[in-house]
Design brief:
Blueprint: H1 2-6, E1 22-24, E2 31-33, H2 40-45, E3 51-55, H3 56-62, E4 67-72, E5 78-84, E6 95-99, H4 102-111, E7 116-120, H5 127-130, E8 136-141, H6 145-149, E9 153-161, E10 163-168, H7 169-174, H8 176-200
Bound molecules: adenosine-5'-triphosphate (ATP) and 1-O-pyrophosphono-5-O-phosphono-alpha-D-ribofuranose.
Adenosine-5'-triphosphate binds at residues 36-38, 55, 57-58, 76, 78, 123, 140, 142, 161.
Family: Belongs to the ATP phosphoribosyltransferase family. Short subfamily.
Subunit structure: Heteromultimer composed of HisG and HisZ subunits.
Subcellular location: Cytoplasm
Length: 206
């Protein structure tokens, strides 16, 4: 929201309070669509929204070639890792891995020629190794506090994650005159955020 504000886009009612999912803004041609992070690529690919914001983890899991990804917003930074009990045997012949990122996980292990059994979960992955549901998990880590609180540790790094701006391919062409200056303003807002984070000694995490 602060980055959008920087780019001159403010919703007329605060989304944290409103129950509306389609919000008017101060700019006549721009409305805000409120969806779950995991649904953002679908809305943008199929034209339910021209532009979207979502995590790189979501985009990697979604896959496909349907979206432009012109800007790293540099917020919501974290890492996608394999985690398990410290010292867990990650090269055992057949390990069970619990995650909501089944596509990423399948790809990652297949590229390394490692055989795994995937268990799809929708959240609280850290619980799975504690109750013997899985040997390993694939999940996001920021401070590491959630892993630590559950007696787990990061074992392998898969990817650095942050929020990205995505754009519908057709809209990029047909609404170029609206989208191009918007992208430029968002880019300037991200640069300004990084400058002020550097000056105040913070990292730009959300
Ligand atoms: N600890 C974290 N630090 C930084 N960014 C994070 C962290 N956890 C999640 N994110 C980012 O926020 C996005 C949404 O988070 P998460 O996957 O936890 O959604 P959720 O809680 O399942 O949301 P919903 O229930 O609305 O679907 C992630 O895709 C990721 O990019
Ligand atoms: O390393 P930490 O700083 O502890 O952050 C990691 C936690 O953050 C994310 O969960 P989130 O808080 O988004 O909750 P949810 O996925 O269960 O909704 C992720 O799934 C981890 O559980």
């Amino acid at each position: 929201m602060p980055l959008l504000g920087h780019a001159g886009i403010e919703p007329v009612e605060p989304p944290q309070v409103s129950r509306r999912l389609l919000l008017a803004t101060g700019v006549a041609q721009v409305r805000l669509v409120i969806v779950r992070a995991a649904d953002a690529p679908t809305y943008v690919e199929y034209g339910g929204a021209d532009v979207g914001v979502t995590g790189k983890d979501v985009l990697m899991e979604y896959g496909g070639q349907g979206l432009y990804e012109p800007l790293d917003l540099g917020i919501a930074r974290c890492r996608l890792v394999i985690a398990g009990r410290p010292g867990a045997n990650v090269t055992a012949r057949r390990v069970r891995v619990a995650t909501k990122y089944v596509n990423i996980t399948r790809r990652y292990f297949a590229e390394q020629g490692r055989q795994v059994e995937l268990i799809k979960l929708y959240g609280s992955m850290e619980l799975a190794p504690l109750v013997g549901l899985a040997d390993l998990i694939v999940d996001l880590v920021d401070t590491g506090r959630t892993l630590q609180a559950n007696g787990l540790a990061p074992l392998e790094h898969i990817a650095d994650i942050s929020s990205r701006l995505v754009v519908n391919r057709a809209a990029m062409k047909t609404k170029h005159r609206l989208i191009k200056p918007f992208l430029a303003r968002m880019q300037a807002a991200v640069a300004a955020m990084h400058r002020s984070a550097a000056n105040s000694g913070t990292t730009g995490k959300s």
